[in-house]
Amino acid sequence: MTDVAAHVADLTLRSRAAARVLATVPTKTKAAALRAAAAALVAAEATILAANAADVAKADASGLSSAMLDRLRLDSGRVRAMADGVVAVAGLEDPVGATIDERTRPNGLVLRRVRVPIGVIGIIYESRPNVTADAAALAVMSGNAVILRGGSEAIESNRAIHAAMVSGLTAEGVSADAVQLVQTTDRAAVGAMLAADGSHGGAAIDLIVPRGGKGLVARVQAEARVPVLAHLDGINHVYVDASADPAMAKAIVRDAKLRRTGVCGAMETLLIDRGYGDPDGLVLALCDGGCEVRVDSALSGRLPALPQATDADWDTEYLEAIASAALVDGVDGAIAHIDRHGSHHTDAIVAADPAVAERFLAEVDSAIVLWNASTQFADGGEFGLGAEIGIATGRLHARGPVALEGLTTYKWIGYGTGQIRG
Known about the structure:
Helix content is 41%, strand content 19%. By secondary structure, it is of the alpha/beta class. The chain has 2 domains: 4-229 and 401-415, Aldehyde Dehydrogenase, Chain A, domain 1 (3-Layer(aba) Sandwich); 236-382, 3-Layer(aba) Sandwich (Aldehyde Dehydrogenase, Chain A, domain 2).
């Protein structure tokens, strides 16, 4: 493809036209289209798996890590899971058109604030071809047109999944332009999407959602001229208060770190109240689970065989079986540490004292704050939101798991009877 900018501009222009139509499509029609898309995914399983095998072979030959290969690889079960996810989105409550609030002014003017689609959403993602189906389903159900730009390592898989999804959608009357895939692997396409702010007479992308590693997200946040919904790091903490039940604390700490070490909700730093009765037991529970624990000087004096944490450890998202641990002066020390080193993603407190817990919940400025629960619950499905487009840690528009409602904005509608402001 010789003119990447022109390709992206064309996709954006067609997406804008499709978004205007899709915004008014009834819930029943969108749901039927998604169910047809799910059936098309199942019917195209052999084609999708053949395309994926080609991607995996190429990626393996190029030296892609085993973790990335696992994210890339599809099998029959994963294809069926993709289809099931699309069906699940079709069954979710449609936020479009919902009244958020309503008021009648003294002059009789009725004002309603109602949910509407954002418009055109660009999704830039890596490795996981299932994002193609998830993102398309969430966009359609929330009334948004979407432009998908997957990683070069999954291009054949993404093309096959996209083709199946579109065949199902169009069979039920949804325009193919509502879900478009960037067909080039040229990295310039990412730059063109990030610059699509509608200036110079071009159509705009209203929101960019990056799904991938830190390098991708950092580039998107640095270069985008359109709004971005994302998180850069998941430097998540579990604070164990002196009042915590020891068995509960040990179970939560182990799960928060070791259930899945590579997810953005995994605990990276364990903070323990100096007044807690068995700090060594918490640390050793992680070690017994195969985790390398890097400890502060206070814990190092108690557990001299463990490596000592450096300043960089407190600011590191490991995404593997490594954690840092420190003793802190109660909830004040925990809040101060999280404020200094946290990434506003997910933080948890284990405590039996409700006053301590409520203070932690109120003062820790993260998108998700939990009491007596593992940080691994940082997931749209676990929140009852269905599929998610990602976790957002900013303070505007949406925070935490972003699902259908997070892909809408609102407008005010006024109903008058001739009122003027003379």
